[in-house]
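Handout, section B. The chain below has 431 residues.
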Amino acid sequence: MKRIIGIMTGNSLDAVDVVLTEFLDDGKIQDIAGLSVPYPISLRNALLTIRCLVNEDDIDMETLQSLPLFLETHDIYLHVVSQTVLKLLSEHQISPSSIDAIGFHGQTLDHCGPSLCPEKNDFPYTLQMGSGQKLADLTGIPVIYDFRSDEIMSGGEGAPLVPPHNKHIAEGLGLKSAIFYNAGNTSNLAIVTEKTLLGWDAGPFNEFTDKLIRRNTSDPFDENGKYGLKGKLKTDLLQELFEKSAQTPGGHNFYLVKPPRSGDPRWYQFEKIAAFQNPIDFNDVVYTSEYFAAYTAVFTLQFVPKTVELPSHFILFGGGWHNPVCLKTFTDLLIGEGYILPQHKQIFKQICQRFKEKPTAQISDLGKYMEARLFADLARYYLEKKTWTSPELTGCTRPVILGTMRRPFQGMIDDKISRAAKGWQKRKLNA
């Protein structure tokens, strides 16, 4: 048995999620305790500013890491993360010495997998912020982190990493096949069968709706469909969202890119959608944005190879599925109900025909800390020296053991950003 803490701070910049999970010798996975702590507004604003700097062409890696704003924000971020870990342990009277390791994702500032590179000679990269050494020193627990770098440096997408974890959950539950679907800032899916493990990013999910709500109301998101349920579908906006709302650096429609693929909020074109900038019929725009999130989640099922039997059981996790508009739209479209854009009618019909049984969907009991637990699971695999991803899943050239480990007070190391950020640096130098 191993007891590992998993930590996730997502693209929404809303909170630190921490979970303590036990991985039992019989393959079962159980959460012992979990805690979410909201980001201070000042930290969120600082991270948004740094993201903007990262996307500028005239700043390089060395300059970024020397900026007072970056250094101060990095230390505040790690303070919030470490205090969340220590609070979790204190509240449950758990000694840090009883924890085998912490699996730490870090805060993503940018990501560009091979599928998003406009030219074959471009440089894929992933850029996460967060020193594993400093976190180990602050908590007194070994930290395993920087999981995406090895994937990127082996030719893979670096995302999604969750499908193997979903497979582990399915095995623990005795499920032979299922589709696990995460609806967070971005949606991603994992197709799990006895012979197959596939997964990829489907596209933005909460991203557009959350921005709409925050810009036009005092609410952080559309809780319980407060606004969306009052609206109706604007089919012209649905068409525009599909055509314009997610573009790769090479100018391709992200929704049409074949897997393996990974997405990044930088490719989501919120500012280019006119209805988002001046939502005259606000509730209608919110409803359509929520409808579209679920629409693309079904649309992407066309990329499941025809040689794979499409599981009819969906296990849902992530905050997006708690929105009633998104959940109803998703389940309706799976059974051939709801509005479909004319050019997609045949695609949706073929998807529905592939199910051998009527599709069912359930929100997972393990869903609340799914992403945080993923990094606990990754840390477990690192400790057991097991490979995580495969060429079939992410496009990597070989299976790799992901991550690197630092023990408390092991010594100084320059690890404030991920190792695969060097690809970002090379792109800047060759621009």
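Note. Residues 125 and 422 are 7 Å apart (CA to CA). Compare this with the example in section A.
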